[in-house]
Design brief:
The complex is a heterodimer. Chain A is mostly beta strands. Chain A has one domain: Ubiquitin-like (UB roll) (Roll), CATH 3.10.20.30. Chain A is built from one helix and six strands; from the N terminus they run ββαββββ. A five-stranded mixed beta sheet of chain A has the order 2-1-5-3-4, with no helix packed on it. In chain A, a hairpin with a 2-residue loop joins β3 and β4. Chain A starts with a strand and ends with a strand. A six-stranded mixed beta sheet of chain B has the order 3-2-5-6-7-8. A two-stranded parallel ribbon of chain B has the order 1-9. The chains are: A mainly beta, B alpha/beta. Chains A and B meet through β3, β5 and β6 of A and β4, α2 and β5 of B.
Chain lengths: 69, 131
């Protein structure tokens, strides 16, 4: 098992693992509506499948926020 | 329930009025159910009828909150001319089940703020305690 930090909390995961895989592991309800930063850098949505995580990575998810009246 | 200091309620109202005729928006950070800090954000839609956050600003708030030992516990936006209730678009775009959604209405002379949370795919009212 490898340790990565997800939204500031340590998680043990099995590598290899992509950003898409991590999103699935974390049961994100609307994966198309999250922004992701990996070690402080934005990951483009089109790169989620190809971006491999490594030991010690720090990943943050944030939901898109918007609306109307 | 969400507990919000009076000065932050006043800050949200002041921002909402300052950004008229457009919708204003932002994030609130704190611990547990108690808000400690307001972060006004840019409405990248620049619209009287819509709002959207800039994800880069969202991440900046996330990092600032962590540095303070806090979490993002609520977001807010204003309705310049409609009541403080979630619109269909608000409901459709409410994805985060872990935060409170505040809506400020400036439709009447007296501003109204109400809180909602996402539950079973809907937005349901939550009590606000002003502290």
């Amino acid at each position: 098992m490898s340790k990565i930090k997800v939204n500031d909390e340590l998680q043990e995961v099995t590598l290899p693992l992509t950003v898409t895989g991590l999103i699935q592991l974390n049961n994100v309800l609307q994966p198309d509506m999250v922004s992701v930063q990996l070690n402080g850098e934005f990951v483009e949505r089109g790169e989620f499948d190809a971006t491999e995580l490594k030991e010690g990575d720090e990943v943050d998810f944030l939901y898109f926020m918007g609306g109307g009246c | 329930m969400i507990r919000i200091p009076k000065h932050i309620i006043d800050g949200i109202i002041a921002q909402g009025k300052a950004e008229l005729p457009n919708e204003a928006c932002g994030l609130l950070t704190g611990n547990g159910d108690t808000v400690a800090k307001q972060y006004p954000l840019t409405n990248v839609d620049h619209s009287p009828e819509h709002f959207a956050f800039d994800p880069r600003e969202q991440f900046q708030v996330l990092k600032s909150a962590r540095a303070d030992g806090q979490k993002i516990i609520a977001n807010y936006h204003s309705h310049p001319e409609t009541p403080a209730r979630p619109s269909e678009e608000d409901k459709r775009l409410a994805f985060d089940p872990n935060i409170t959604y505040l809506i400020l209405s400036l439709a009447a002379e007296e501003p109204v703020i109400k809180a909602f949370v996402v539950k079973d795919g809907d937005m349901v009212p939550e009590e606000i305690e002003v502290i």
